[in-house]
């Protein structure tokens, strides 16, 4: 009887030891699972036990992709229509084919400022696009509309241009936002993060306007000389300079979208010029 009891106890002890060893063997560590690569969207939060206290390590800094302008601006409407000879805001040349993009954007930023901008954009440009489509069907296209969007640090810049088919009579709408707050930036706030003063920036715009009129003046004769100078003075007026729109392009350079008084054809013309100023990324 004692022999049988001893045999039973020995068997139970062996089974217990096997169970313990089996449990340890099942916890082999796979280094790719324990430490998933940074940025992996499939990494899992593991539960680690320390003295019966279970904690879940946070992964707030992993799997975060760098944002781009496309994360905040999407195309709301797109139609293929004839273009213009040259489109300032995209720099594209019309190739004679009826396939130039005409796009109206929509901001995906949350907040009242972005929603108000979306309402304004649709109100200003959807009718233009509809009228243009009808005009194309009748053989007399009106023009083109498109946009560009750039993200520099926290500053999102969205610039739209609408233009007639036969003159450089461009109209611009520019919107700048702080993507961390969703708030629209005023013109003074946009200029405040440039590595140049507001006064210097206005001087740069004046220089760009003068270059245009200096070229006209060099070719002017007779009464046309005074016409050019009158147009120059109008373009350099405080009223006209107050309407200049600013945004930061793909290189972070401050860009001015402005209009100047024409001396023939359309009353005013549009122009886009990159200024000798850039965004100071330490300022925001």
Main β-sheet description: 4 strands, antiparallel
Tally of individual helices: 7
Structural class: alpha+beta
| Helical amount | 25-40%
Question: What's the assembly state of these chains?
Answer: single chain
Low-confidence stretches: 1-9, 11-64
Q: What is the average per-residue confidence, as pLDDT, rounded to a whole number?
A: 78
Spatial gap, N to C terminus: 87 Å
Question: Strand arrangement, largest sheet?
Answer: 5-6-7-8
- Round the Cα radius of gyration to an integer and report it: 32 Å
Run of helices and strands: HHEEEEHEEEEHHHHEEE
* Strand residue content: 25-35%
Shape: flat
Counted beta strands: 11
Could you describe the 3D structure shown?
It is flat and about 55 Å long. The protein has helices at residues 2-25, 31-34, 112-137, 187-192, 198-219, 224-235, 238-241; strands spanning 48-50, 53-55, 73-81, 100-107, 143-152, 155-164, 170-178, 183-184, 245-248, 253-261, 268-278. The protein has a four-stranded antiparallel β-sheet with strand order 5-6-7-8, with helices on one face. It has a three-stranded antiparallel β-sheet with strand order 9-10-11. With 284 residues, the chain is an alpha+beta fold.
What is the compact description of this entry?
The chain has 284 residues and is an alpha+beta fold.
Provide tags for this entry.
alpha+beta, 11 strands, 27% strand, flat
Topology, element by element:
Layout: H1 2-25, H2 31-34, E1 48-50, E2 53-55, E3 73-81, E4 100-107, H3 112-137, E5 143-152, E6 155-164, E7 170-178, E8 183-184, H4 187-192, H5 198-219, H6 224-235, H7 238-241, E9 245-248, E10 253-261, E11 268-278
Antiparallel strand pairs: 1-2, 3-4, 5-6, 6-7, 7-8, 9-10, 10-11
Helix pairs in contact: 5-6
